[in-house]
Amino acid sequence: MTGIDVDTNLGGQPDSPAAEYAEPFHPAFVNDQAAAWMGVELVRAKFGDVVIRMRLRDEMLNGFGMAQGGMIFAFADVAFALACNDPHGDGSTITVASGVDVNFMNPGFSGRQLTATATLVNQTGRSGLYDIRVTQESGSGEEVLAEFRGRSRTVPNPAAKKH
């Protein structure tokens, strides 16, 4: 239980037909050059509930022909950042990572589609806890590639002070 009741669905009410077809949007995603380089696709973007996808490419592999752990971490971190920042916020604050733990469970391979699902576990004041599960398509369906747990902190937006 998060203790938060926030409707950030861009398509209207959560159960409305329009909500099902709303194009996902997040202002933090628009200028995320790292996510763009990785080829990240935004599937769902609500406060505390984000789904993204990307396809692993050869330049994301390590010397063993498997996904570089840092690439998987960066992919999960994109989902984390989007989940802990309200897409409808006023921009006066941002929520950043205060710490993370990641456990790698299976190797990732070039050409496979990865999905990261970020979920808010708990929010207390300016601190939050998020779980991000990274899965990949495989011959037998979907397998867990990594589990990422992120701790967040909401702080004043330094960019907002420049305006």
From TrEMBL:
What is the name of the protein in this document? Acyl-CoA thioesterase
Q: Using the record, list the residue span of the signal peptide; answer none if the entry has no such feature.
A: none
One of its Pfam families is: 4HBT
Organism of derivation: Crystallibacter crystallopoietes
Report domain Thioesterase positions: 65-139
InterPro entries assigned: Acyl-CoA_thioesterase_PaaI, HotDog_dom_sf, PAAI_dom, Thioestr_dom
Taxonomy, superkingdom = Bacteria
Coiled coil residues, start to end? none
Q: What UniProt keywords apply to this chain's record, in alphabetical order?
A: Hydrolase
Q: Which GO terms describe its molecular function?
A: acyl-CoA hydrolase activity
